[in-house]
Design goal:
194 residues; mainly alpha; 9 helices; 0% strand; globular
Length: 194
């Protein structure tokens, strides 16, 4: 199924097309990333994770819609959701987009847990895809010099590795936790020269 067919609001096709144009860029946060997040949401739903599929799909479409490698990318994406979506969806989608800054949904936030896990699911990718993801993230931050990027990336990875659980849903933990931890440890070792 193409991305155009996965848009959850059939009466808002011009918005879908604006979003597709926004995601059509180089780096990791591209159309492939959007497609993979939507795929992982399907996997989580099939595995029994409970969440509103329309709300969470819309949040996936918006979560990195604005991406310049800047500190306010998620905020600008959330503001776009608030201004462009029908009132029925706008506030909740924007909340979910903002949650992806830290990927720490509350324990009772089923929608946030699903979106966070689908977004972080790349961490469990097979080695070739994981390495392409890392290269894509580096391309996203091409404006940052190598030393600062390595330090920043290592800090992000140490934060992730230090969490008791990377994933918020039991389904994602069962599917992806072990592989994700192995990838993170491998990347972190490479950054520290071990």
């Amino acid at each position: 199924m193409s991305l155009t067919e996965r848009w959850p609001l059939p009466d808002h096709l011009p918005l879908r097309d604006e979003l597709l144009a926004a995601w059509d860029r180089d780096g990791y946060h591209d159309l492939r990333h959007l497609e993979e997040v939507l795929d992982r949401l399907d996997v989580l739903a099939s595995a029994g994770a409970g969440f509103d599929p329309t709300i969470v799909a819309l949040a996936a479409w918006f979560h990195d819609a604005v991406y310049d490698g800047a500190d306010d990318d998620e905020e600008r994406s959330a503001l776009w959701a608030e201004s462009a979506l029908p009132a029925t969806y706008a506030d909740e989608v924007a909340r979910l987009v903002r949650m992806t800054v830290e990927h720490r949904p509350a324990a009772d936030d089923l929608a946030g847990a699903a979106l966070s896990d689908a977004d972080l699911g790349i961490l469990a990718a097979p080695r070739e895809r994981y390495d392409a993801y890392v290269a894509g993230v580096r391309a996203d931050f091409a404006h940052v010099d190598d030393e600062d990027f390595r330090a920043g990336r290592a800090a992000v990875l140490r934060d992730l590795v230090g969490r008791a659980q990377l994933f918020s849903t039991p389904q994602a933990r069962e599917l992806w936790e072990d592989a994700a931890r192995a990838n993170l440890e491998r990347e972190l070792a490479g950054l520290s020269g071990r």
